[in-house]
């Protein structure tokens, strides 16, 4: 299907400064984000087990996100950083999820679109991190990660298109991407992926 997904508002310039000034905090948040991304994909498998067209893709994405978690954890370990006992809620994801409609199928469509939105935003931010880092090892890691994550941006919307009419998905995606553009400019800037 031909369509393009991209953020409608760039990350505020203060975001990359905050990340680079507090990179260890960002690394910990990034590890937690990869764990959550894996759980999100596999959680959809658990909630919609009869929707078999999407299960192989969701499993693949869940495994890939878990591999990214392993890689980020290795970077943390090399720097003497530990995972937190408790993962705080991500205010960005919480607000996006609050936009989900009720009803099993409407909620599925919205969750899939929000999955793509969060991946597209992460993709934009991984590139900013890769471009902003000085350490060659970290720069290379984030460039590789950016490239491997590129396919995730549309993956969730592609899954939605397996179950819903294209125009319905794209219309709803436009609404949610517009909401995300407003959200990214008003939530507090943190040394976090979202």
Account of the 3D structure:
With 194 residues, the chain is mainly α. The chain has a single domain, classed as Ferritin, core subunit, four-helix bundle (Ferritin), CATH 1.20.1260.10. The protein is 72% helix and 0% strand. The protein contains eight helices and no strands. It has helices spanning 13-21, 23-47, 55-78, 91-97, 104-132, 136-149, 152-163, 166-184.
What is the structure about, briefly put?
The chain has 194 residues and is mostly helical. It has helices spanning 13-21, 23-47, 55-78, 91-97, 104-132, 136-149, 152-163, 166-184.
Topology:
Layout: H1 13-21, H2 23-47, H3 55-78, H4 91-97, H5 104-132, H6 136-149, H7 152-163, H8 166-184
Second rung of CATH, namely the architecture: Up-down Bundle
Distance between the termini: 28 Å
Tally of alpha and pi helices: 8
Number of domains: 1
Elements, N to C (H/E)? HHHHHHHH
CATH superfamily: Ferritin, core subunit, four-helix bundle
Relevant terms:
single chain, 194 residues, Ferritin, 72% helix, globular
């Amino acid at each position: 299907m031909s369509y393009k997904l991209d953020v409608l508002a760039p990350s505020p310039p203060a975001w990359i400064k905050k990340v680079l000034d507090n990179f260890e905090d960002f690394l910990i948040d990034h590890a937690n984000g990869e764990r959550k991304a894996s759980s999100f994909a596999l959680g959809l498998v658990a909630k919609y087990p009869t929707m078999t067209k999407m299960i192989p893709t969701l499993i693949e994405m869940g495994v890939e996100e878990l591999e990214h978690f392993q890689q980020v954890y290795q970077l943390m370990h090399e720097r003497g950083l530990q995972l937190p006992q408790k993962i705080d809620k991500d205010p960005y994801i919480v607000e996006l999820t609050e936009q989900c409609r009720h009803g099993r199928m409407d909620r599925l469509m919205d969750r899939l679109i929000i999955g793509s939105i969060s991946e597209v935003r992460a993709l934009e931010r991984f590139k900013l991190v890769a471009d902003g880092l000085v350490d060659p090892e970290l720069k290379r890691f984030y460039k590789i990660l950016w490239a491997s994550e590129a396919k995730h941006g549309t993956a969730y919307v592609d899954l939605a298109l397996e179950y819903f009419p294209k125009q319905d998905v794209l219309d709803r995606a436009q609404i949610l991407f517009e909401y995300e553009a407003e959200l990214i400019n008003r939530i507090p800037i943190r040394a976090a992926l979202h």
